[in-house]
Design a protein that fits this description.
The protein has about 290 residues and is of the alpha+beta class. It contains 13 helices and 8 strands. The protein folds into 2 domains: about 1-105 and about 280-293, Nucleoside diphosphate kinase-like domain (Alpha-Beta Plaits), CATH 3.30.70; about 155-275, Alpha-Beta Plaits. It starts with a strand and ends with a helix.
Length: about 290
């Protein structure tokens, strides 16, 4: 598999304009479905931008072609403008480029949110990654309507233990509604959907292993972030969600409903900790990728 790792560097201006989702969708559509394997925020000239790392056959050439130039109709640059997005150059050293970006990886979560601002965790759920496609980017496009900018990104594989912790509060509500046995069954379904492993079926010694299902975690920060995010997300049940909301457009059931968002600032803190969004080392990813090359 030639050049099986490559990347897109999204400029701070493009991130502020809410173009991250469009760029992600455009990259996948123009490359035949390269796999997103790492995402994060990196410091660039002009502020914080995003780095998206992809894996797949001939990834360098495919992403370079997708980015294109201003005079190539249909390319990302032709549609968004020069300087908004760039890719690894064919013949270049992708690992060396990523090592350079690792030194500039932003750590906005190391400090508290700005005065008057809230943070909200968003999870783009595994149903969006069932098949290579534009759905993850399309979901992010709807969140972009809030005007909020993500301060942290992470491609994550939720472990069974994380799923049990994350959805622990849900178990009591399900037990109260359905009874102990049925409530537990519904809860295990949720954990399995998010992690790929059923708590009662996975040996306890393996509960902390990364799961088999992919999610994209984002932390948005800004005034009234919780309300703004949940407004465009829509109610838990897609059948009750207003047209244009994420769950109405992309959800199919109460569980398979495209995305999760924190419902209160204190829950955002709890959930960000469980998913370990801050533990997203590009350096570690690069070292692992180089070792497996």
């Amino acid at each position: 598999m030639k050049n099986n790792l490559s990347y897109l560097l999204v400029s701070p201006d493009a991130l502020r304009r809410g173009w991250l989702g469009w760029i992600l969708s455009g990259a996948v559509a123009r490359t035949g479905g390269l796999e997103l394997v790492w995402a994060g925020v990196v410091d660039q000239s002009g502020g914080r931008g995003a780095l998206l790392v992809f894996r797949g056959e001939d990834a360098v050439n495919k992403l370079s072609t997708a980015v294109g130039s201003a005079n190539e109709a249909g390319s990302l640059v032709a549609m968004l403008g020069e300087g908004t997005v760039s890719a690894a150059k064919p013949g270049g050293d992708v690992v060396a480029d990523l090592q350079k970006f690792a030194a500039a990886q932003s750590d906005a979560l190391a400090s508290a949110a700005a005065a008057g601002a809230q943070r909200s965790l968003v999870l783009v759920k595994p149903d969006n990654f069932e098949f290579p496609g534009t759905r993850p980017g399309a979901v992010l496009d709807v969140f972009a309507r809030t005007g909020l900018v993500p301060v942290a990104l992470k491609v994550h594989h939720m472990s069974v233990a994380e799923g049990m912790d994350f959805y622990g509060p849900v178990l009591d509500a399900l037990t109260e509604r359905f009874g102990a046995e049925k409530g537990r069954e519904h809860w295990e379904n949720i954990v399995e959907f998010m992690s790929g492993g059923r708590p009662s079926a996975v040996p306890e010694k393996d509960h902390n292993q990364p799961g088999t299902r992919k999610i994209l975690a984002l932390v948005f920060e800004g005034a009234d972030a919780i309300t703004k995010i949940r407004t465009v997300l829509g109610p838990t049940d897609p059948a009750k969600a207003p047209p244009g909301t994420i769950r109405k457009e992309f959800g199919t059931s109460i569980m398979v409903n495209a995305a999760h968002a924190s419902d209160a600032p204190e829950n955002a803190v709890r959930e960000i900790g469980i998913v370990k969004v801050a533990d997203n080392s590009l350096k570690g990813f690069v070292e692992s990728a180089a070792g497996n090359a």
